[in-house]
Amino acid sequence: MPCIKNIPELTNLQKQYGKQGLVVVGYSWEEPTNLKKFVEKQGDRMQYTLVNDSEEKTLKYLAEEKEVVEGFPYAFVIDRKGRVVWQGAPQDGLEDFLALLFE
Questions:
Q1: Can you give the C-alpha Rg of the chain in angstroms?
Q2: By CB neighbour count within 10 A (0-12 exposed, 13-18 middle, 19+ buried), where does 97 fall?
Q3: What is the pTM of this model?
Q4: Pairing of strands 25-28, 49-52
């Protein structure tokens, strides 16, 4: 699964830019019990926050506000004012954008 393959990359980004203010937040619509088991199984491999939204309210809001490409994984970079300043598949430039952002 592509989302699971991105866990190490997201953990590395959190480690690399966390002291500069980056907060990586993973998103899941899984039921809370299943999500808890998944996170426990990942252990130290997943070192960022994961939120649960089994009603998909967050995704629906973002999809209404922004033109979201279907498919996962999908990432948003939201600045401190709550504006989406980057979005897309993480492998399509997320790391490059963060490097520029935190120069």
A1: 14
A2: middle
A3: 0.78
A4: parallel
Where are the chain's structural domains? 2-101
Q: What sign results for the dihedral spanned by CA atoms 85, 91, 96, 101?
A: positive
Looking at the domain that runs over 2-101, which CATH code has it been given?
Answer: 3.40.30.10
Between helix 94-101 and helix 7-17 the angle, nearest 10°, is 0
The candidate with the shortest Cα–Cα distance to 89, out of 78, 74, 76, is 74
Per-residue pLDDT tens listing for the chain (103 residues): 667 888 998 999 999 999 998 999 888 888 888 889 999 999 999 999 888 887 778 777 776 666 655 666 778 888 888 888 888 888 888 999 999 999 8
